[in-house]
Give the backbone structure.
Amino acid sequence: MSLSKGLGAWALTPLGGLSVVTVAAITATGGFFLTGAGKADFTIAASRSSQAVPQGQSVLFTLTLSGTNGFSAPVQLSASGLPTGATASFSPSQLTKGSGTASMLVATSRTTPTGSSVVTITGASGSIVHRATVNLTVTDHVAAAFSLSATPAVNTMLPGDVATYQVNVNALSGFGGPVSLSTIGVLPSGMTASFAPSTVTPGRTSTLTVTTKNNTPSGNYTLTIAGSAPGQAQQTTTVGLNIAATGKSFGISGPAFSNIAPGVTIPLDLAITNPNNQQLLVTNLTVTVQSVTKAPGVDPNLSCTPADYVVTQYGGTYPLAVAANGVGVALSSLDPVAAHLPTVGMVNSKTVNQDGCRGASVVLAFTGAGQG
């Protein structure tokens, strides 16, 4: 391909029938620029640019982060410019995939000065930093008619699990009216929250049930519980929810066996326990001889070691699907072909005296791998 200059512009001439890259812009001075992909980046914005909150109470802002040009790196959130005595907490504090929504809860104290402040919200991912600002107006303290509390303070769970909290409504200054409960702010994907009952009077308790799905992102979240009553200031309290990235370890056990002798092979119908609230896909099972203990009274000059025993591994096809919360699920129920079961046997030696293994105790070890 060659370049030739026409009237105030460059012209591209193909050579040998080859296709020519499209030129996005051509200047009269002879320079030219080729269109290319933009830099991966993100934007950050708040759903409400201004909110007011009485001294000693809290207010919630919803933030939206949007990745551009394939941006998918983690973004850490922080806030600055808060008035004295006020704090900000984010849920989640980091968006791991560079896009999504988060909640910023600003809690004030009774001593936080009244007036307006510009709060700067910063999203940082390595050298890429973007900011958004919101206006926070603190007004005079309003006497609360009731307060909220919740236990436990934090629940830890796996994706697909269910967590519960007890929410208490406490009367102040003789208040006795009904209080409606809700969660405010952004819940992560696949998470739902419900109250039973959703309306309570002071002195009563409601159960908050938080349900997640298998695809709910792992992370540490803060849930904000709000109580509302006609003619009264809304009250809030928070609880933590930590969603682990990996599931609980599953268990493997084997049957007791006896009368093992040279040349004898015993099938092992392993039992698998899945403690998770989601299906487990077992991708590997391994049996090994961990130790051998000779029986009392056996001639000490005769040996018996793990080398006198042999195991064969599971011979079927992986993965093996174990239902959620399955306890002691037999391998034979997952694969009914008896020939696929692992086995343990004793070597039948023609040259070595194996009387040292009479009555010996053999300990097997079971290990496995899976995903869910």
